[in-house]
Amino acid sequence: MSDLQKSLSHARTHQAEYLEQYKELLAFPTIGADPAYREDIVRAAGWIAADMQRIGLTNCQVLPSEGNPLVYGEWLEAGSDQPTVLVYAHYDVQPVDPLDLWVSPPFEPTIREGNLYARGSIDDKSGVHVNLKAVESMLAATGRLPVNMKFLFEGEEESGSPNMAPWLEAHKDLLQADILIVSDGSNDNETPLIMVSARGIVSAEVRLHGPVKDLHSGSYGGVVHNPAHLAARIIAAFHDENGRIRIPGFYDNIRPLTDTELAQMKAVDDWTMTTALRETGLTHFWGPAEIPFQVRQTAQPTCEVNGMKSGYQGEGEKTIIPAEASFKVTMRTVADQDPDDLAEKFTRFVHSFDCPTIKIDCQINSAKWPFQGLTEGPVLEALQKAYETTYGRRGLLIRAGGSVPIIGDLSRILGMPLTSLSCGNGDNGHSPNEFIRIKYYHLGIETVIHFLYNLAGNALQQL
Ligand SMILES: [Zn+2]
Predict the structure, then answer these.
(1) Residue 447 near residue 191, CB atoms below 8 Å
(2) Are 421 and 181 in contact (CB under 8 A)?
(3) Å from CA of 405 to ligand 1 middle
(4) How many angstroms does the Cα of residue 141 sit away from the middle of ligand 1?
(5) Distance of CA 27 from the midpoint of ligand 1 (Å)
(6) Mean pLDDT of the chain
(7) What does the pLDDT look like over 263-320, one tens digit per residue?
(8) d(Cα 197, Cα 375) in Å, to the nearest integer?
(9) From ligand 1's centre to the CA of 120, what distance in Å?
(10) How many angstroms does the Cα of residue 130 sit away from the middle of ligand 1?
(11) How far apart are CA 374 and CA 397, in angstroms?
């Protein structure tokens, strides 16, 4: 029997045992955002590290951070001619309220109709446990792994990973690898989903201060500069009539799409546009029509006003010149745009409207990096082949228009190619009655096993 077959067979004969262990992990109330659960977080981290030690990983440790601890472990005996794979997942979970909507308590894992219900069952303790049980099966059945592996499990992802960037900087050497696998999120029922990119985000608030108080529009109209008018001028200047952003340098440093990427996006253009028409209730879309819809939606930067405030909003009329106006903006960035650079360009553009009559304040609230994963090549192919074997179909490459800042930080700071591998299949990730489909929990373990053996066939220089 081949090592692959031995590993798969081990995973199959230990299904019941693995599921019992998974329930143990799910029972820890690891709500990362709530300090009341700090002790449970620490206990869960210890539980994971102990399990890693037991299954034969080395250098297993609970590593402190400014916030919740991280768990690390490795196995580096596959030889220097084999790639080193770093797996990232998170063991913290979302809060559970409203509690009364849960059919069974969130931290008492319960099986109903082939699903395992518990907070964290799909997001993202599956990413932790499925990967560990895959390597447990391989180590127990064959005594080795086909590639070198490192594992990093975070405890603050659901709180926006506030301490991760400096922590990653400080642990760069420990985490050095050839490829990063992000194990978070869920596959669609029958279809594996591979997230290949997400945009970064810069958020800003602009405040315009005019007179010290609202003024009589009869007495002062025509001589006092109205902050609402200037706000409107600034906002109107963000785009040309065709929807192209006019902030100088806004499109600098965008990594050009490869022919393959462009073809992948064009292939889903009709489908995404039809879906978007249905969801928005619109009949027409906006923006540069020469750029494919899916490219505009996921691979181009944006500048959107999210809210505007000024003057009188009540019933009837009120004859004033408002003292102030303000608006909020978010910009989405794409690889390889530096969000701090874009923030600076935005600020400079807003201040190009500086005048003696109104004082402009421009405040940047956050600036987060985009990420771009692999869209072709041997690593992605190793994963696609694994999905073909286990799911019976290749994964769908998904580009997120939104942002996943932690992956942006991981890929930027660690500087390695990455792909996502969702280990489970379930739903209600941030809602009551979160669950994982048990069939796909086990299939996830087999997918990881196949993937790692497929990867081993690839020479390092191909990565
Ligand atoms: Zn998650």
Answers:
(1) no
(2) yes
(3) 12
(4) 30
(5) 17
(6) 95
(7) 989 888 888 888 899 999 999 999 998 999 999 999 999 999 999 999 999 999 999 9
(8) 9
(9) 9
(10) 14
(11) 10
